[in-house]
Design brief:
82% helix; mainly alpha; elongated; 154 residues; single chain; 6 helices
């Protein structure tokens, strides 16, 4: 049974591929928790010894790049907005789990605040990745069609 345009836009053209990318999102979430958990346990004195990780801005740029990059790859190959949102939100949500689980933030309304903040940052990152992937896909299709026209003329 063919998919509607809305379902294709939201989930993607291929459900099996969308499910694989959702598993990638879960993997990114778990990997972020693991990496951030290790970095969270490192003291400030030890953190100054590791060059790129001593600056919080570098970490944010790396995490944002992973979020946008994974959403872009998904949008290029499958074009599902919800899955791009999941990929964009996996890393920011993982960043809020560690402080809550470590006890530095009490597990009350801060858990909801952390989830909301993760989504607040993740959905725009996923949307940006989705837009980049769709534009890149269309640019490649346009270039290939143009190349075929020039080949047919010669």
């Amino acid at each position: 049974m063919p998919r509607s345009r809305t379902a294709s836009l939201l989930v993607g053209r291929n459900s099996a591929l969308a499910l694989r990318y959702l598993l990638v999102a879960v993997g990114l979430f778990v990997a972020t928790i693991g990496l951030w958990g290790v970095l969270w346990g490192v003291t400030t004195a030890e953190l100054t010894l590791t060059w790129p990780l001593r600056d919080f801005r570098v970490l944010v740029a790396i995490f944002a790049g992973v979020s946008v990059g994974s959403a872009t790859v998904h949008a290029y190959t499958n074009r599902g907005l919800f899955v791009s949102w999941a990929l964009g939100s996996a890393v920011p949500l993982g960043l809020y789990v560690v402080p809550t689980a470590s006890g530095s933030m009490p597990p009350d309304e801060t858990v909801l605040w952390g989830i909301g903040s993760g989504l607040l940052f993740g959905i725009p990152l996923g949307t940006l990745g989705f837009l980049l992937g769709v534009v890149l896909h269309r640019a490649v299709l346009f270039r290939n069609a143009r190349q075929k026209r020039t080949d047919a003329r010669s």
